Amino acid sequence: MAQASFRDAMARGRGAASAVVVRPGPFAGRVAGQAWPDIAGDPALQVPALGKVTALLGGDALVIDIDPAAAPGVVEAAVETANRLSGEGATPFARVVTITGLLAGHAGGAGDTPGEAERERMTALVEQVCKARPDLVLLLEGAALGTASVSIALRKLYNTLRNVAGYFNVPLGVMLSGYPAEAAAEFAKLKLDAYVLGADAAGNPPTPDALAALATEAAVGLALPFDRPDVARAWVAGLADCQPLLLLNDDLLAADSSVEDLRALVSDLKQPKA
User: Fold this and answer.
1) For the CA atoms of the chain, what is the radius of gyration?
2) What are phi and psi of 40, to 5 degrees?
3) Residue from 239, 178, 248, 182 nearest 210 by CA
4) How remote is the C-alpha of 63 from its chain's centroid?
5) Sequence ranges of the domains in the chain
6) Most exposed: 21, 42, 96, 264, by fewest CB within 10 Å?
7) CA-to-CA distance for 100 and 106, rounded, in angstroms?
8) Where are the alpha helices (DSSP H) in 33-171?
9) pLDDT score at 115
């Protein structure tokens, strides 16, 4: 059921409900009763921990989060976790791999584009992940992309990654924020499979027009402040006509997050909107 809900939302099926995708991070360690760094570095711990936290909160997809700049062994553990969850029946949930994106992880200055070595590392990582056939690979770019000009050079960067994901028939998307509200539709030029929008440059949620423009050929979603449940609910209520949506938390959950508040929020977000 959870996996089907996610895939229906990705396919933008008529009448499909929104899918809630929780990025647990350190909160998964608390639920599993183990230190998060230990879990992150060991696929044998990470697989059950992600399943447990996703079931507890009622999410539609479990999330494998990858930061290419993580300590040695952590990226490899995340890739192996994706592989272990790739078999038929390995999990009842959809599988989403989030990766700190090429621009967000770029070590250069503002306006500088990632160099060839950075591009090659990201391309190789996306290829590794896509071999596990997740339901979505989502590049976490935040304001690094939101404030960027959608230039030919930028389109070429993402075109390379899109071609790699497309070879394995895996949808590729981005999460971005900090964009000028009037320019959000420009990101459709990247020709990706999913766009998850956080707050714009003024701190406001995306407009229905922005989501509609991006939804012409792609799934769309919201990066919500789960640490402010009332704000998250208000965002979704104000965009009820834009469903189906992919609904994600905009940052990893803190270890001390309230289980009751999170469960209530996820439940509310999954309710059909009038």
Assistant:
1) 17
2) -60, -25
3) 182
4) 8
5) 2-105+117-269
6) 264
7) 10
8) 36-40, 43-57, 74-84, 116-130, 143-146, 152-167
9) 84
In this structure, are residues 173 and 219 in contact, taking their beta carbons and an 8 Å threshold? yes
Cβ–Cβ < 8 Å for 244, 9: yes
One-letter amino acid at 251 equals D
Query: How far apart (Å, rounded) are the C-alpha atoms in residues 272 and 255?
Result: 29
pTM greater than 0.85:
yes
Task: Kindly indicate the confidence band of residue 11, based on its pLDDT and cuts at 50, 70 and 90.
Answer: confident
The four Cα atoms 144, 178, 170, 79 give a dihedral, to 10 degrees, of: 50
**Residue type present at position 188:** A
3-state secondary structure at position 150: coil
| Contact indicator for 99, 129 with CB cutoff of 8 Å | yes
Contact 212, 236 (CB under 8 A): no
Tens digit of pLDDT for each residue in 107-154?
554 456 788 899 999 999 999 999 999 999 999 999 999 988 899 989
3-state secondary structure of 89: coil
Q: Where are the alpha helices (DSSP H) in 106-224?
A: 116-130, 143-146, 152-167, 208-214
The type of residue at 165 is: A
Which CATH number is 2-105+117-269 given?
A: 3.20.20.210
> N- to C-terminal Cα distance for the chain?
22
Q: Burial code of 251-272, b = ≥16 C-beta within 10 A, e = fewer? A: bbbeeebeeeebeebbeebbee
Comparing C-alpha atoms, which of 2, 6, 25 is closest to residue 262? Answer: 25
* pLDDT at residue 218 greater than cutoff 60: yes
